[in-house]
Amino acid sequence: MLLGIDFNDSRKLGDGRQRDGLLHRLVSHFSQIRLRNADLAEPDMLGRAYEYLIERFADDAGKKGGEFYTPHRVVELITRLLEPAEGMRVCDPTCGSGGMLIQCAEHVARKTGRRLGTDPIDLTLHGQEKNLGTWAICKMNLLLHGLPDARIEKGDVIRDPKLAHGGELMLYDRVIANPPFSLDQWGVEVAKDDRHARFDRGLPPKNMGDYAFVQHMIATLNDRGVLGVVMPHGVLFRGSGDGRVRTALVDEDLFEAVIGLPENLFYGTGIPAVILVLNRAKPEPRRGRILFVHAAEGFEARSNQNVLRPGDIERIVDAFHAYRDQDRFARVVAVEEVKENDYNLNISRYVDTLEPEEPLDVAAAVAALRQAERERDSAAAKMDEILRGLGYGP
Length: 394
What we know:
Blueprint: H1 10-13, H2 16-31, H3 45-61, H4 72-82, E1 89-92, H5 99-111, E2 124-129, H6 132-144, E3 151-154, E4 164-165, E5 168-169, E6 172-177, H7 188-191, H8 210-219, E7 221-232, H9 240-251, E8 255-260, E9 273-279, E10 289-294, H10 310-322, E11 330-334, H11 335-340, H12 362-389
Parallel strand pairs: 1-2, 1-6, 2-3, 6-7, 8-10
Antiparallel strand pairs: 4-5, 7-9, 8-9, 10-11
């Protein structure tokens, strides 16, 4: 570990010439170790090792970990819902350590028979990250995964979106994100006069920025673009500013799916979350309809955090592709029904989430009752006989 070493410390490393000699020998030593992906036992080994360390650090960091890392299985689920393909432009406007962008690249690599880390991937990856330290982790993460051309900007994506060209926001085929939940002080003061007109549907409350991020992402979708974003359940039913934005999005027929996830999946919060899939070009059979998926019960319980299993992911992805009703799991709902429910998108309004009552076997219940009556009568007769022997009763 090189942490804490001061290479200008003359007390430990000597004068300038001695320090230069020591650094030269150090660099020469590591230069002899071939760490290119092509020289390793398998491609992308360094990238996967680095991401493993990021995940462990996020686990140890507790609440802070959720600010820069989304669990791998959740990212896999969203990536498979969005199906990024070769030649597409993909953006994560709150990219953290870059895991969502990397999984999009991995998805395309698998689909095209390439290997991440050694083969070129025809995919444009862009992102923005507010925290400088997290931005640096993201850049290193992408580099180690063989994605050095990804463009990752520093800055607050609401107050100062950097992914722009000629004064206009850049547009993407896929936008994938897990922004901070219900961010306080998200930038309402600049949103009122936003030069990109991102918030024309309405301003979210100043202490809950969820729909600010959603509106920014929609503004960066091209006319065929699809968005997959993790949100708290409150966005489904909160009123006021959130309600106005949600109403506009329903009226525009942008919602393609609302997928409820299990609780305690994310670092830093135990609350259940929801994946919103919004599509600017919904296929004809899906227009005027929204798929609601109740996936809150499919997970593996672990001591500190729940985890989606491969089978849980498959079931959700299959339901999204099938886009049809499944008892107590999924339901396709007409937009008109949502409007009749005052634009409330709460999943329990549309999918029966209550535990079903076990069917009553009436014949068996009657037989059990008759048997109980016979046993009662037998016990009563025996008690009368005993009482008579003791001189009580007729």
